[in-house]
Write a structure and sequence with these properties.
Elements: E1 11-15, H1 18-21, H2 34-40, H3 57-71, E2 75-79, H4 82-85, H5 95-110, E3 114-120, H6 126-130, H7 138-154, E4 160-165, H8 167-176, H9 187-211, E5 216-222, E6 226-228, H10 233-256, H11 261-269, H12 284-288, E7 294-298, E8 303-305, H13 338-351, E9 356-360, H14 378-396, E10 401-407, E11 426-428, E12 435-437, H15 439-450
Parallel strand pairs: 1-2, 1-10, 2-3, 3-4, 4-5, 5-7, 6-8, 7-9, 9-10
Antiparallel strand pairs: 11-12
This protein binds beta-D-fucopyranose (FCB).
Residues 17, 20, 165-166, 169, 222, 298, 360, 407, 414-415, 423 line the site of beta-D-fucopyranose.
Length: 459
């Protein structure tokens, strides 16, 4: 019989990140981050908003903890704003910045919620970007300082640590595609940045273990299955290349201590490695390839890949998998729950992580309060249920999945899309800061309390 309940001890969580919810950018000595700079440039944020206030969580965190308590959430994944702790990137620690996370952690623990801290969720201090950002190897040392300061202070209470969130997005979207801060457009920079991110992960993990020996340390990657858009050979090759760039480029160094040869070759052919792999120094891969306690997987949708490299006429048949528009979220992302089962099973088979955790999964839908004040976000309810079933299917197939974090607790600042893309299970009125638990929040709460997706809720 298929597994219908989650294992006991399963971590039921919600996730957020500092820049997306905190606001209070000038409070208590916080420095400037690359996202402040990026969001301030005209035309880069789709809806013209910024995150200066966002959810005002820096001031309202106690109320937000109460919301989580009301939902029955067992774990909260949040991130540390580097510019609050080290306003100049390295060197002087800003005590007031660390104090905020200290209070947050104490508040969570008092509410019976396990804190899961992410050290880097994209808000690099601007001063470090001015010195080259993640393409500068010295940023690795600065990140280790951050890891040291934060884990020395919180490591007696925080036992779950995530070094980086989605280094593919940081490097490729930030340094090659220009779609995220710092907005560069250089593939060569992106690949150098990706290596420094991985190296900083390995070094920070060692520092956290030194400061907090009881803790579990992992990293979070965005992983999707890459499927060819058609059965053509060209699309098959492109899908394999994209998988290499997105997934194997990060997981192979972590688990096998090497970059995948075919992906190096591919990047070389594309002219992205003008100086070869010279940014990898002796010993780096050994530092990256240290055992981790869990791998965090963020999953939203699958990747359907079509070759752009050859003329259409030679790439037949070019039938693109047609996502049904009814099943797209507001991000334009296809709702594809089977992909989550596939991703978990694939990562498990290829890398045999000791433990897997879904550190983000969720959907953007704009649904707001109706006449009675309640938020009936039925499509989000369906999305969550179907993806939790996908988790159960993975567990059933033997995947060591130990937790699930819904993205997100609150509607928040969705990076280059601004405040208009709402991922929360709690509605936020960005004018009044009122919060309303959506129908999806109530449903998630019932699932958590039952540790299963009950029949009565099946769509
Ligand atoms: C992920 C990010 C997270 C959020 C979701 C929708 O890539 O980690 O901050 O923006 O996407």
């Amino acid at each position: 019989m298929a597994v219908d309940a989650f294992p006991s001890g399963f971590a039921w969580g919600v996730a957020t990140s500092a820049f997306q919810i905190e606001g209070a950018h000038d409070a208590d000595g916080r420095g400037r981050s690359i996202w402040d700079t990026y969001a301030a440039q005209a035309g880069l944020i789709e809806d013209g908003t910024n995150a200066a206030l966002a959810c005002d969580h820096y001031r309202r965190y106690l109320g937000d903890i109460q919301l989580m308590e009301a939902l029955g959430v067992g774990a909260y994944r949040f991130s540390i704003a580097w510019p609050r702790v080290l306003p100049t990137g390295r060197g002087r620690v800003n005590a007031a910045g660390l104090d905020f996370y200290d209070r947050l952690v104490d508040g969570l623990l008092a509410a019976g919620i396990a804190p899961w801290a992410t050290l880097y969720h994209w808000d690099l201090p601007q001063v470090l970007e001015d010195e080259g950002g993640w393409t500068n190897r010295a940023t690795v040392d600065a990140f280790v300082e951050l890891a040291d300061a934060v884990s020395a202070r919180l490591g007696d209470r925080v036992t779950s640590w995530i070094t980086h969130n989605e280094p593919w997005c940081v490097s490729v979207l930030g340094y090659a595609a220009g779609e995220h801060a710092p907005g560069r457009r250089s593939w060569s920079d992106a690949l150098i940045a990706s290596h420094h991110l991985l190296l900083s992960h390995g070094r920070a993990a060692a520092v956290i273990r030194g400061n907090a020996p009881q803790s579990k340390v992992g990293i979070t990657l965005n992983v999707s299955e890459s499927e060819p858009a058609s059965p053509s050979e060209a699309d098959r090759i492109s899908a394999r290349q994209f998988d290499g760039e997105l997934t194997r480029w990060f997981l192979d160094p972590i688990y096998f201590g090497r970059y995948p040869e075919d992906v190096i070759e591919y990047h070389r052919r594309e002219g992205r490695l003008p100086n070869g792999m010279s940014f990898v120094r002796p010993g780096d891969l050994e530092e990256i390839n240290k055992p981790i306690d869990f791998l965090g997987v963020n999953y939203y949708s699958r990747a359907v890949v079509r070759s752009a490299s050859i003329p259409e006429a030679e790439n037949a048949p070019r039938t693109v998998v047609p996502p049904n528009p009814a099943e797209l979220t507001d991000m334009g992302w296809e709702v594809y729950p089977d992909g989550l089962t596939q991703v978990l099973a694939r990562v498990n088979a290829d890398y045999q992580p000791s433990s897997l955790v879904v550190t983000e999964n969720g959907a953007a839908y704009a649904t707001g309060p109706g006449p009675d004040g309640s938020v009936q976000d039925t499509r989000r309810c369906n999305y969550i249920r179907s993806h939790l079933r996908a988790c159960l299917a993975a567990i059933d197939a033997g995947v060591p999945l130990h937790g699930y974090f819904l993205w997100s607790l609150l509607d928040n600042f969705e990076w280059a899309f601004g405040l208009a893309k709402r991922f929360g299970i709690v509605w936020v009125d960005f004018e009044t800061q009122e919060r309303i638990i959506k129908a999806s929040g109530h449903m998630y709460s019932r699932i958590i309390r039952g540790n299963k997706i009950s029949e009565e809720q099946a769509a």
